[in-house]
């Protein structure tokens, strides 16, 4: 799969480690930055990464800031994006099964790399349940006019 990845400065080192992990699983990376520890503003990185998922250039997004909260707020502004902040594997499983989440948000200051790798594995492997959950997703899309 093609994975769009982005972080702010708080997630920069973390992003580097996760890029290597995701590549080791055979996926292709589209890196939307940031590219150093220099302080930056997370909307500048979350938004283009989320747009690439919405445009189907990438299959999934993985976006990282200190908590994952700022990245999730920004990504969910993009039509067609269902960004989920996941703090453990169960969150990742349900984000896929119930919410058909297409962007995974991680908090570099909150979640160890070892746990983030497990969360990523689950997020990439699990599928959407559809049925009643599809009705709910359609209602979300109707709210934003897409
Ligand atoms: C940066 O200090 C921090 O505010 C940011 O990474 C993120 O946690 C915001 O939600």
Plain-language structure description:
It is a single chain. This protein is of the alpha/beta class and 146 residues long. The chain has one domain: Sugar-phosphate isomerase, RpiB/LacA/LacB (Ribose 5-phosphate Isomerase B, Chain: A, 3-Layer(aba) Sandwich). It is built from six helices and five strands, in the order E-H-E-H-E-H-E-H-E-H-H. The chain has helices at 12-24, 43-54, 69-75, 89-97, 113-125, 132-144; strands at 2-7, 28-31, 60-65, 83-85, 103-107. Strands 2-1-3-5-4 form a five-stranded parallel beta sheet, sandwiched between helices. Strand 1 (2-7), helix 1 (12-24) and strand 2 (28-31) form a beta-alpha-beta unit. Helix 1 (12-24) crosses helix 5 (113-125) and helix 2 (43-54) crosses helix 3. The chain is globular, with a radius of gyration of 14 Å. The two termini are 25 Å apart. The mean pLDDT is 97. D-ribose (RB5) binds at residues 8, 10, 42, 65-67, 69-70.
